[in-house]
């Protein structure tokens, strides 16, 4: 496939942005439906440089690090009711007197990208899961390193990249790109195809994002609707890892009334595992994966 046929999506983001977390179902659906015709490239925008000088007027977030946690947790819970991705507010402590910024998570992702570009997306996903659905203190260096090991990244290499300044410089380059594109909030998506770029600001529903892609590409991209059966679900989970119910419903165009009994049947067969996460759950594939027919 020639490069001119590939649509690149620059996803301006931050690992702990709740609306970026809520965009995961849509981005995964685009990856499945368009396959290799679409390339998604995360650009780290650095949501909070210092919570002590940060202020989100709409959600009354900012100022004292410890005091901000309750406001952030409440905002994330409200957002979860809209986007459907799980969040955990019990024990939530994103900021402390020692961890006042989200920049460490951004820099850690850039370190992962430098070490292993193939594993970097899994690390970014793991950062989002740990921050949003597990209430892990991902601003701490030891947590960032632990999460790297969980996805198979070389932890020593990550520590090295964090220490030698290369990850920091890569993050600064992303910040410059964020400024150059005029990005003021997250997520923001820059759709690039055939020399043209279209910017979409804020959280996007799938229909709106796909419509923008189709207009920009003038129908040059071919869409493949995934089959909502056990094989399709297995392939998806093995490719992307664990998924929240809203992700499965979005990717496979399933109503909850159809999805829930299907997942329950797979769980009863021992081929799927439900993992509780905050106010929701994730589903993971098990082996062997038994064919139970289409939904």
UniProtKB/TrEMBL annotation:
Keywords annotated in UniProt: Isomerase
Domain of life: Bacteria
Annotated GO MF terms: isomerase activity
PANTHER family in UniProt: DSBA FAMILY PROTEIN, GLUTATHIONE S-TRANSFERASE KAPPA
Protein name: Putative dithiol-disulfide isomerase involved in polyketide biosynthesis
Organism the protein comes from: Thioflavicoccus mobilis 8321
């Amino acid at each position: 496939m020639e490069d001119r046929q590939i649509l690149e999506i620059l996803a301006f983001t931050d690992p702990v942005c709740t609306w970026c977390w809520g965009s995961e179902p849509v981005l995964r659906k685009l990856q499945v439906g368009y396959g290799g015709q679409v390339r998604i490239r995360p650009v780290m925008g650095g949501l909070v440089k210092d919570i002590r000088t940060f202020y989100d007027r709409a959600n009354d977030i900012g100022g004292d690090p410890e005091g901000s946690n309750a406001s952030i947790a409440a905002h994330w819970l409200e957002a979860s009711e809209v986007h459907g991705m799980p969040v955990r507010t019990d024990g939530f402590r994103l900021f402390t007197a020692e961890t006042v910024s989200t920049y460490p998570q951004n820099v850690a992702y850039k370190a992962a990208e430098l070490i292993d570009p193939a594993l970097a997306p899994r690390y970014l996903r793991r950062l989002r899961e740990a921050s949003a659905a597990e209430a892990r203190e991902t601003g701490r260096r030891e947590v960032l390193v632990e999460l790297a090991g969980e996805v198979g990244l070389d932890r020593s290499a990550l520590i090295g990249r964090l220490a030698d300044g290369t990850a920091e410089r890569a993050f600064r380059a992303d910040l410059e790109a964020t400024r150059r594109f005029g990005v003021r909030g997250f997520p923001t998506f820059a759709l690039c195809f055939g020399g043209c770029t279209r910017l979409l600001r804020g959280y996007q529903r799938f229909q709106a994002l796909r419509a923008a892609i189709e207009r920009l590409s003038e129908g040059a991209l071919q869409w493949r609707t995934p089959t909502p059966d056990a094989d399709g679900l297995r392939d998806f989970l093995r490719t992307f890892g664990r998924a929240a119910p809203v992700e499965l419903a979005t990717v496979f165009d399933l109503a909850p009334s159809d999805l829930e009994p299907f997942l329950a049947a797979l769980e009863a067969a021992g081929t799927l595992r439900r993992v509780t996460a905050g106010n929701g759950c994730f589903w993971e594939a098990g082996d062997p994966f038994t064919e139970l027919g289409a939904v």
